[in-house]
Amino acid sequence: MRYSLTDIRQRGRRRALRVRNRAYRAIRSVPEAERRTILVLGCQRSGTTLMLEVFDEDTRTLSFPEFSVVSGVGEGGIRLRPLPEVNALIERRRAQITVLKPLVESQHAPRLLDGLANARGVWMFRGFESVAASNVGYFGADNAERDLRLLLTNDPPNWRGEVVPDAVRAVLEKHYASDMSPYDAAALFWWARNHLFFDLGLDQRPDVFLCEYEALVADPPGVMHSIYEFCGLGPPGRDTTSRIHSGARDRGASSPISEEVRAVCEELQARLASCSHASGAAAAE
Q1: CA 23 to chain centre
Q2: Cys-Cys with 244: which of 59, 208, 220, 276 at CB 3.0–4.6 Å?
Q3: Interatomic CA distance for residues 169 and 153, integer angstroms
Q4: Which of 153-167, 232-246, 248-262 shows the highest mean pLDDT?
């Protein structure tokens, strides 16, 4: 795993916030009924780290990124530990808000939501062009094709190849080629991972909030207010969204994605956007 200067700075800031939040928790006891475990799920490069950082700004929060004491097993050490162990680790720390980002377990969202105490899910999604550009820019030109190949073959067994419906596999096989454009591959991986939101019936669950990254960037306080209400939590005592800037929306507006792949992704993106608006409206009510 390579880290950029930005990654290193973000890790340092998160470490400082965790120390501050730990001090806050040491002097404030929270009844079990008021605690929440929030799962940040979705496809990589979709604003999930940003969501974790916003929650970190809340002194009530204890967060576990992809590499943490609740993971450390499986491929790359980012698979989640057995749920009884995760629950025990969360209970031991007794934070009012515990936020986990087990992205590689998004295909197991129902099991996680049912197995973790007082759990709510926030599924992040971002425009496919932006995700494709971010994927290629961050992970390199070969990564997305590898993701698709591992998803389709599940050889060796891996998180990408778990819980892939036959209909999804058929669409991917139609477009996949070992020498395909990295942007097409990244967009199709976005499509497969976000299709899980409907494949798993998360759109029908009252404990999952669908959050559009572009909406979060456009109105950070409003979207976070909706998420806190959805989770049954009062608002934080300070502005936690001041680090979000509107310029983050512009990435990937002209990613070179083929018309065939673009059509597949546009249909799902419109469906997600429609559900996202409904999710926000329901939380506001």
Answers
A1: 27
A2: 220
A3: 10
A4: 153-167
Determine the Cα–Cα distance for residues 83 and 160; give it in Å rounded to an integer: 20
Token representation of residue 135:
């994927």
Neighbour count for residue 253 (Cβ, 10 Å): 10
Distance CA 182, CA 159 (A): 20
Question: In 10 A of CB 111, how many CB atoms?
Answer: 12
**Which residues are CB-neighbours of 115 under 8 A, at least 6 positions away?**
83, 87
Question: What's the predicted TM-score (pTM) here?
Answer: 0.88
Angle, CA 33 vertex, CA 30 and CA 35 arms, to 5°: 55
Distance CA 85, CA 97 (A): 18
**How many angstroms separate the CA atoms of 224 and 214, rounded?**
13
Cα dihedral 56, 59, 60, 66, rounded to 10, equals: 20
DSSP state of 92: H
- List, for residues 245-264, the tens digit of each pLDDT value: 766 665 555 679 999 999 99
Q: How many residues does the chain have?
A: 285
The two structure tokens encoding residue 148: 């698709």
User: Two tokens at 207?
Assistant: 């404990």
Name, in order, each residue with C-beta under 8 angstroms of 178's C-beta and a sequence gap of 6 or more: 145, 149
| Candidate from 12-16, 102-106, 188-192 with smallest mean pLDDT | 12-16
Q: For domain 36-284, which CATH number applies: 3.30.390, 3.30.230, 1.25.40, 3.40.50?
A: 3.40.50
Give the pLDDT score at 280.
53
For residue 66, which amino acid is it?
E
Cα(240)–Cα(89) distance, integer angstroms? 26
